[in-house]
């Protein structure tokens, strides 16, 4: 908790625009994937699974909804929050929103790992779209770790 507070309080050095654009593109891919799954969920359609088998088993399992809300909709909201934070940084150098977006990647990574475990060990079925989301959330998380490691100001490293 102490480290989390330091990350929230301490400023970041300027993050290169190219790195922010990379985050934006990855978050946009995740948003598109999750939004597609959400639309298909509400239409009652199982999207085609070409590379792996088990999309139907995963997307219709009890793990695909939380309190009646499709996990894909929660994923779309997650990616949208990251898009807003990164876009605010690119357009107005709003470093606080970027930092918050980067911190949200921790939650996305944790939930992605949980759903990966569910697919592998509980359902023993794979969903291509869920794997894409796992990949995008992992890339976002790893990039956030790199940014916090490389672009934190020196005073946030010693407190």
Report on the structure:
The chain is an all-alpha fold. It has one domain: VKOR domain (de novo design (two linked rop proteins), Up-down Bundle), CATH 1.20.1440. It is built from seven helices and two strands, in the order H-H-H-E-E-H-H-H-H. A two-stranded antiparallel sheet has the order 1-2. A hairpin with a 2-residue loop joins strand 1 and strand 2. Helix 2 runs antiparallel to helix 4, helix 2 packs antiparallel against helix 6 and helix 4 packs antiparallel against helix 5. The longest helix has 29 residues. The two termini are 13 Å apart. 28% of the residues are buried. The mean pLDDT is 92.
State the separation between the terminal residues, measured CA to CA. Answer: 13 Å
What is the count of β-strands?
A: 2
Mean pLDDT: 92
SS-based structural class? mainly alpha
Q: Please state the overall shape, judged from the principal axes of the Cα atoms.
A: elongated
CATH architecture: Up-down Bundle
Radius of gyration: 17 Å
Please, how many helices?
A: 7
CATH superfamily: VKOR domain
């Amino acid at each position: 908790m102490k480290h989390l507070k330091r990350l929230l309080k301490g400023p970041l050095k300027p993050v290169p625009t190219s790195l922010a654009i990379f985050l934006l593109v990855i978050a946009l891919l995740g948003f598109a994937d999750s939004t597609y799954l959400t639309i298909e969920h509400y239409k009652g359609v199982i999207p085609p699974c070409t590379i792996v088998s088990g999309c139907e088993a995963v997307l219709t399992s009890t793990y695909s909804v939380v309190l009646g809300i499709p996990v894909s909709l929660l994923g779309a909201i997650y990616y949208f929050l990251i898009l807003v934070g990164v876009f605010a940084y690119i357009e107005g150098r709003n470093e606080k929103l970027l930092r918050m977006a980067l911190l949200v990647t921790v939650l996305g990574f944790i939930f992605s790992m949980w759903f990966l475990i569910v697919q592998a060990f509980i359902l023993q079925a794979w969903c291509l779209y869920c794997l894409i989301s796992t990949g995008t959330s992992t890339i976002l998380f790893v990039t956030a770790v790199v940014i916090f490691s490389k672009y934190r100001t020196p005073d946030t490293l010693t407190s």
